[in-house]
Structures are given as C-alpha cells and as structure tokens.
Amino acid sequence: MSVTTAQADDHAMSRAADSSPWLFSPAIDLLAFGGSAAISMLLLGIGYASGLLEEETPDWTWITAVLLVDVAHVYATAFRVYFVPEELRRRPWLYLLTPLLGWLLGVAVCSESESLFWRLLAYLAVFHFVRQQYGWVALYRARAGEQDGKWLDAAAIYAATLWPLLWWHGHLPRAFWWFRELDFASESARWAAWTEPLYWCILAGYVGRSLYRGMRSHRWSPGKDLVVFTTALCWYVGIVALNSDYAFTVTNVFIHGIPYIVLVHWYQDRARVSLESDERTERGPAVQAGARIASWSKYLATLWVLAYAEEFFWHRGVWHERLWLFGAAWPWGNAQVWLVPLLAVPQLTHYVLDGFLWKRRSNPRLAS
Prior knowledge:
Elements: H1 26-50, H2 59-74, H3 76-80, H4 85-90, H5 92-112, H6 114-144, H7 150-169, H8 190-217, H9 222-241, H10 245-275, H11 277-281, H12 285-319, H13 323-326, H14 336-357, H15 364-367
C-alpha cells in the first residue's frame, strides 16, 4: 500500500533486536486482519440465510461496508499527510500536486470518454487493492527480519488476488462490478482455466513451507499467514465461488479498509508516544485508556463525516441513489465533466500517495 507498494528492506532488518512475527501486536493483528475477515464471513452467512445473495446490496450493508469503511479509509491518508504539518513540509510538491494533477488528468480523460475514465479508475483501484495485500506481507517480513522465502510469499499473495481477477475477466458479465457496469474489459475464460492449477500449487506451496518452517525451526509467522489466508479466502469466495453483489461487497471491503484504518491510527499514535513519552509515563492506566478512546473517537468521527460529505455529492449529483439519506438529486448537466473527476480526487490521491507513504527507506519514522 503502499501499504499497496510498501517495499520492505528484508535484509536490513534481518537482525533487528525488536523483530517480531506480529506487525502491531498479537491482539491488534488478530482483530484487524482476522476480525475483518470474520465480519465478512459472518455477513456472508447472514446473507445466505436471509436470501440476500440473490439481491443487490441492501442499504444497511452499503452504509456499514462502503460508507463507513471503504470510503472512510480513503480519508485516513489525511491523518498521515494533510493533517500533519511537518509531513506536508517534508514533501510539499508530491502532496500538493498529486490531487491537482489527478483532477486535471481526470477532466481531460472524462471530457473525451466517460467510460474510459471509469475503466482507468477501476484498474487503478484494483492495482491498489492488490498491492496493499502484498504490502502487508512485505511489512510482516520486514518486522520479523525474514530473509528467505521472499519469492514464494510474493507469489502466494499475488496468486490469491490476481487469479480471481483473471477469472472475473473471463466470466463477464457478473452480478457485480467494481465501480459501475462494464468497467472491466472482457477476456477469454481459457486464461483462468489454464492458470488455475498454478494458483492452487502456489497456495499449497506456501502452506507447506509455513508448516515446515514452523515445525522444524519454530519460526512461525502467524500474522503474515493470516493475511495470506484471509486474502485467498475472501477474494475466492467473493469473486469466484459466488456471483452476488452482496457477497462481493462484504468480502472485498472489510479486509481492505479496516486494517488500513488501524495502520494509520497506530502509526500516528506511535509517533505521539515517541514525542510525549515522559508525559505518558506519568499518566495512570485509566487516564491512558480514556485518552485512547477519545483519540479513536475523534479519528473515526472525522473519517465518517468526510466520507458522508463525499457520498452526499456523489449521490445527489451523479448516482441519484439513496436520496432518502442524501436528499434530492441535483441536475449538474455539462458540469459533470469537471465535478466527477473532482469527486474522484480523494480516492485517486489515496491510491497514488499510498505508493510513497509506506516505503521504509523514504520514511525514517516508519523505519523506527
């Protein structure tokens, strides 16, 4: 990412004194990665029992999954960059030109072809989603100081994401899409059929190697294994096994957005700890717990308000859906060619900047 393009320097950290098989801590890792996947599977079970798999995603699922997680996590980037003056001063050209150029490029493309605009944005989003999952694996490897098995780790996470996408492209149309209908190009189903044995072999190889390392040398990597397993499970079930808009939504969104929201807050909290270490040691446990609750509350409330504001304009001006939540539709007419790319700027900025924010070499604070 990113966490999509996090390029961890495995060798430099192989002897790190604080190496750990967990990225944050056992409890936080299990909640962020395992908990988000558990929510997906729970909602999938509810959908199966209630018949929602045969219908479009209901409003309550859209609000919890798309609005409060998917859209909201985009604005977590602001807590990493735009709400941090010292970070803005560190790379002002990158942080200020990215949204401006993204908007201008979007206007240029949208003015020529609206369908091309959405197709390019969809593939950029897909690239971001895939690279984020690889980024988690890379960060886990760096955190544990792993030197061996890099290619198999990369092959496993890419197989877990790319093969379901290849299968999807070969079986269009489906009951779901990324942003809107026909935003993916159709391909021959033979590519997915030919590569399916390789997909299963790579995943089996990853499982075999993890078990071998764990039983022979007790070098378990439970957090990394959890990321690979939950990614493979959710992407396969949501894209290949089921042809359902509801199923795709609940399996796609939570495992992507929740860990990222946790990562940004954890990063900012660790930065505050390093700056206020003396003050924090004087606080009692109850005061520290209250401060954490207050911090999380302000953080999530800000993300949710910004997410609602964005969707307010999308639904009133473009989609003209869920007007019970956002109000009457606005006829934008020819202004859409300027306003649609403008509304896409937050997610476009998130996709691009995520490729810079989690590279350890260019972010000294991340390395520490």
